[in-house]
Design goal:
Elements: H1 31-43, E1 48-50, H2 57-63, E2 72-77, E3 80-81, E4 84-85, H3 89-103, E5 108-114, H4 136-145, E6 149-155, H5 159-166, E7 173-177, H6 191-197, E8 201-205, H7 220-226, H8 234-243, H9 248-257, E9 263-266, H10 272-283, H11 288-298
Parallel strand pairs: 1-2, 2-5, 5-6, 6-7, 7-8, 8-9
Antiparallel strand pairs: 3-4
Length: 303
């Protein structure tokens, strides 16, 4: 299996391998299965680990015990209650301090502000604007001064939120999902140019379109919900891949790996075999002829 290349993540100057490991879907595995998968990921060269507040961080802490200095570790704030994020300064501090305890570390390499996905979210009565003075961003800047984190980022889907955050000049990293996949290049319009202009590193999560590009024909309504304002075409892509003897997972990850911005790709595996599949997909050989044919059919290419 080929070695994953190193990538520069913008002005952070972190240089992790091109594929990282997400933490959102490990609930399907036991603690020991999760730890074994994390160790296997490291054996395969993966050294960037994204975690999720309150979601089995203790497993990651156990898995990385004695290995912390070999990886980049990322946390998120704030802890979620009743599907709502609390972006007050106090909640942000409490969330990160809890993560540090569970992850068994004194610091994390990055922290993402999480749960602020749409511009209109901050107009809700129970939503605190994380970027406003005195809230999450200011709290993280203070904790950065204390040495508890090295870089601050934001995780959001929409370009409006990402661009607003990046333009503060205090955001070093962006995690986005479903905005740059085989199904849509939306991030190239505003998000990527803003990140390039500010030298912000990008993490492309959900390269498989949250299950749409795994090789199984999805429900059309599910596809419409995840990728609105576009005619469903996953079924056509899968039929094309079958006719050309191509694995759509290979195309999906390698398309994201070729994004025109300083970036890494964060698949969301939940089992050891899915970790291995992600690395295989990233390193598989795909000929120029295949990409040319795919581009001719769907207008999508990683070249």
């Amino acid at each position: 299996m080929s070695v994953l290349e190193r990538r520069r993540l913008g002005r952070t100057e972190m240089r992790p391998r091109s594929i990282g490991l997400g933490a959102a879907w490990w609930g399907r595995s036991t603690e020991q299965e999760t730890i074994t998968a994390i160790h296997r990921a490291m054996d395969l060269g993966i050294d960037f680990f994204d975690t999720y507040p309150g979601l089995m961080e203790g497993r990651w802490g156990k898995a990385l015990a004695g290995r912390r200095d070999r990886v980049y570790l990322q946390a998120k704030v704030s802890r979620v209650a009743e599907r709502k994020s609390d972006h007050t300064a106090a909640a942000t501090r409490a969330s990160l301090e809890a993560s540090l305890r569970l992850l068994q570390t004194d610091y994390v390499d990055a922290v993402l502000i999480h749960g602020y996905d749409r511009p209109e979210d901050v107009d809700l009565d129970d939503m605190v604007d994380p970027l406003a003075p005195g809230n999450a961003l200011d709290a993280l800047m203070k904790m950065k001064e204390e040495g508890k984190l090295r870089h601050i980022g934001i995780g959001a889907r929409t370009d409006a939120v990402v661009c607003r955050a990046v333009e503060t000049g205090r955001i070093d990293l962006v995690l986005t999902y479903l905005e740059y996949t085989l199904l849509t290049p939306a991030a190239t319009e505003r998000m990527f140019p803003a990140c390039r202009a500010h030298d912000v590193g990008v993490q492309l999560a959900s390269p498989f379109g949250m299950g749409l590009l795994t090789g199984v024909v999805p429900d059309i309504e599910e596809e419409k919900r995840k990728i609105p304002d576009q005619e469903p075409r996953v079924a056509r892509m899968l039929a094309w891949c079958e006719a050309h003897n191509v694995n759509i997972r290979h195309l999906a990850i390698q398309f994201c790996l070729a994004a025109p911005v300083d970036s890494i790709v964060l698949p969301g595996p939940g089992r050891l075999v899915e970790v291995e599949d992600a690395v295989e997909s990233a390193t598989a050989s795909i000929s120029d002829e295949i990409w040319e044919a795919f581009e001719a059919e769907f207008g999508v290419s990683c070249r």
